[in-house]
Queue: 2 jobs
Job 1
Amino acid sequence: MIRTVSAGETAPTTYAWPVQARGLRVRAGRRFAVDGLDLRLGFGVHGLLGPNGAGKTTLIRALATVARPASGHLELLGQAVDSGGDLREVRRGLGYLPQEFGHYRWYTVREFVEYVAWLREVPARDVPDAVQRAIDRVDLTSRAGSTLRSLSGGMLRRVGLAQAVVGDPTLLLLDEPTVGLDPEQRARALELLRDLGRDTCVVVATHVVDDVAAACTDVVLLDAGRVAFHGPVAGLTAAGTGGADPEVGGGVLERGYAALLRRHRDREGSK
Amino acid sequence: MTRVKVLGRVLLVELSRTSVVGVALGFLAVAGVLLTDMDRWSGLWMSVVLAHYASVGALWPLALACGAWFGRREAAARMTDLVAATPRPKPARLAARLVTIVGCFAGGYAAMGVGMLPGVWSNASYQPPGWYWPGLVGTVAVAGAALLGFGVGQVAPSRLTAPLLGVVAVAVTVGLRAVGPGPVPLLLPGYLGETDQYSLLDAGAVAGQLVLFGAVAVTGLVMSLADTRQVRRLAGVPTALALVVALVVVPSDGQGVRPDPQASALVCADGTPRVCVVRLYQGALPELVGPAREALRRLGRLPDAPTAVVQVVDERNDTAARSADVVPVEIVMFGPTSIATGGTTIEAMLLDGAGTTACGPAADDLPGWDRLDAARSAAGLWLRGADPTPDDNVSPARRELTEAALTTLRGLPEPTQTARVAALRQAALECRPDLYEILTAA
């Protein structure tokens, strides 16, 4: 599909890292779900892994400017967002699929994606094309006129993806994007993520280690609100093959995941 | 242009994909039922606009609850996180929704009022000053209730918020009405005290209500659009201040209307004998004048006959109703130029009781009422030289009494007949109960 490219899209970036956090602390209820996190993310697809309660969703919410950091420094797309202020410019560059994807049941797919494009302040003249492209990218072209209430869980997740990618955001935050997708849909979604990662900073929070291996350029392993490991996916594989723990089942990736977590906890415990 | 198109589409989707239009239509159906009154003649400005305004008393709890229901929509759809991450400011984001809701509820209410205007315009002979204020205040009240509901729905997006708000609103209505007499009930939407067709609006009551309901709308708007808790906390300030202002401004006697002397001023037909109606019913004068003069001519047979027909405004305290010189006429209109006569003619209506008004309530179960009524009918028939006609509204017993009285009367010598009808007229003016005996005594 041919489309016009705006000057904004071709303008050089003025920041080194789309996401930069130092000593970041974010509350989830009474506790700090993100607790002193240091992180730098460039363009590419970053898999956010970690056990339940590790702080993945809270971190994604902070990156989406929904949860305000309690302390520390957080810079998104070159703008500090930890002290509040006008977040409009940053939000224009954000695409977000929350863990719980709420939606208006009576809207059609096209109407909903269009509504989010309007909320995201996608330039009015670009809205029709941007909406169509987003719907095409998630293979919902034939269901564009269907109401959301008539869609299956997997299709709804794809609508969630479509609304997140509409308008080509620079920073794309996806919380469990492949939940509910069948194997074929999942493969297509991962392909889409790889494609997006070429010129976008995509952060994918997931429980599925295989998804990380299939689509991500690097992996961020969180534990108790801190980074346990941050490196290429190969690092996960290496940890799973070298000195594998015989007590841990699963494939190489799962063993690597468990080994890296254990190492981190040992380190933290010895401090 | 493209921006307008996209915004228009957002608005259109909002209208077509939500229940707001359906709910607003239900709201208007309730308003329609409240406003339907087959007995009300559309030629009376104040009756029409005050009935329209009074419906707000039942509509504002509905608007409040509906506003709350739509206010929780984002939270109900679990869209809060998703929209919080988008750049469009809250006022711009909610503008389409607020315009839709206020437009559907307040606009619908106002449109109903506007829809009633052509009927009044074409039938009314007197337009009271400030007739448009109740409609305006009502529109602001409905808008304020919808906005306040929306704001509360945003702040407390529970499923129970809307029904609870509706119940609270009804409780407030009942509670404040029970507080009266005094200025407090005048703080309620749709309430202006005891009103009638001769009412004139009190400027203080209108100003107080307008300020209060406008402030409620501002409070709702601030609650709906505020991004921070600090701003939201200040949302109640305009309403609190307006409440104080309203209590100072509205009349302390709790009456939001005053009698309009212009509306009840007499307007008389050219020529003699005198036939007069109040200005509000000036349109009925051409229909009345002919039969009225004919009735006066017939009454001229009696000694000390009345010389004028004058409309009675209030039977209980109008001196014309009991004046020997005047035939009182009570006018009820059922069409643009039709005086309701209850199945008879205007002349017959005037001559009933030899040109007097019946005393006390016209209740069939009143002891002796049949005899009183029969005597009054017989006097009227005697004056017209007519006989009783079958009438569905009259019981057979009463018709028999009438016929018997008329036969007895006509069997007497001519001067006696005249003297007895004159005596009946005098007794009726004094509200005596022995009218039948006066007419038929041996």
Note: The interface with chain A takes residues 2-3, 5-7, 9-10, 13, 17-18, 73, 77-89, 93 of chain B (CB under 8 Å).
Job 2
Amino acid sequence: MIALNNPGFEDVKRPLILALGCCALLGAWCWIEASILESRGSSYRSLVKQLEQMSVDSARVRSLRAQPRLATERERPNDELLAQIQQAMTVANIPASHWVGNDPTQPVRVSRSPYRRLAVRLMFEDLTLRQLVQFAYHLTQMDTALSIPRLRLSAPLGTQTDAWNVDLSLSYLIYSPFQSE
Amino acid sequence: MDARVTIQLTNAHACLARYEPRQHTWTRVALHHYPFDTRLLPREDADLRLPGRQLATRLCNDYPRGMTCRLVIPASWCLMHRVVLPVKRWNDRAALFEFEQYVPVDLEKLTCAVRRTGRQTALVVGVFTEALHAFLDELENNHICVDLVMVDALLLIQKRDIRSGMKERGLLLIDRERITIVLPSDRQCDVEPCRTVGLPSHHATAFVQNRVLNTVPVLHKPRVEWHLLPLSVRDDLTEITGAIESAVGRVCVHSEQSARARILDAATAAEDAVDLRQGELASTRRWAPIHRRILGCAVAAATFLLILAIRLCIDNLSYAAAANELRPLRNQVYQTVFPDAAASPAAALRLRSERIKLEALTDRGGVSARDLNSSALDTFELLHKVMAYIPVDLKLHVNELVLEHQGIRLVGQTTGHGATGDLVRQLNKAPGLTVDPPRTKLRKDGTVDFRLRAVGDSDDRPE
């Protein structure tokens, strides 16, 4: 229609081919740049979003670190726990001879929660209530994750003193999400 | 627009004019005189390159390169005749065949345009191909593109002019070198211009073409006898017009200047004018404007794409730079929480993990550790509550006291059933405690062993 076989076309043929070739190359360049731009734009937006989330998380973490802990990250070594108990006994003026036994158990999953509970049964003889309360208070103050879910006081047989045989359960929660099991 | 530029040639001058559409006027861009040569006459050896070479150079200087214009050539360069087809069925070839009888050369040497003027009549215009071709080539070589080639006499006498009341029976076009006589031949209003024949510049001779050529026998075509009506530009114009008027009737006389405006107007408006730019004279660059526009579009597209690509490239670099600025910020935020940790690509993930872990450790998680973990204070608060609600005056020997999540269990001795009942009533007053009826056993000494159980309410004593 536009007489491409016309001799006059020869005048513009070379520059036209050159221009069309440039168009093709530039089009390809544009396409590549647009693809990169889309990728980088997406990456940048996600980076900004991530940074915002990180700022929120960072503030939250700093705030949470100041909070008392109600669970531990890992199972404590037995020695560490016993040392804490002895320290609390010292503060409560409980002679070591009154501590007659302990019975640690294996951690047990608290039903459908990310926690496991580890309990240690402690047995004391001839403790006054004052000693008991001081012991429990200092122990739980030293470690906020520790709790005493069960306490059994029994009167020693054949005595009329205000001393008690104490059987208490000391427990703490271990944060252990399912994935890490 | 290019189409509004017209080059009008006479036998002595070339006028380049541009139409101003707003003012509806023509602006004469250039007027060049070129030396007249008898070789310009419509003969086989005519050499129109002579004016073409000079004119093209001059016109190119007067107007931008690559312009497109229309060319008006004088009627004296052409051979024209009205032909009557012997057959009723119209055919261009038949018209040319008829025309061949009236021309003194082989038809192959001419480029002809046929304009049908009636049912069986046509006006055929011929021009020597080689001569005009050379002229047009000269123009094109100087980047002057001619899209239409028209004849001035035919532009002056349009059919519609005649119908609208043209009374003149003839037309005289007088330029510096020639007098051209144009005659409508009969009452049918067909246009039958005459042909002029050039002589040395001080002579101009015209003859009434149709009368002469009608007498030319076909068989004697190579030896055409020209019936000349000798006229001279030196002669009194009155005598010339008188002579023509005596032959054909009233004549309208136009000088080169007076005819120019009409010719230029007609050249612009006459889209259906007889066009000799055909056949061998067709422009090799007829499509040049379209080709140039395509080229322009391609260049524009390439420019646009180049700008777009540069813009995209800049945007990419901007994004990369912005992202590079954000990465240290990310590390800074990360190190506010983990000061000793090295920068990590998974910083956000680790931070989030830390937050979730701490929420779980500090009773902020989805499952409350506080709900699961009864604190020591709760147990001892329960002990305190029990002690507080035991009547002071009650003589009570406690053998065993168990405090646990489910409640309390108390085993001991009282002085009697009444004392046991008092104990239960007082403990029931403690908020959050529901005391079950105790099991009792009366001993021989009158004291009562009891065993009671109190259950904590669910609101106060989580399971």
Note: The first strand of chain B starts at residue 5 and ends at 9.
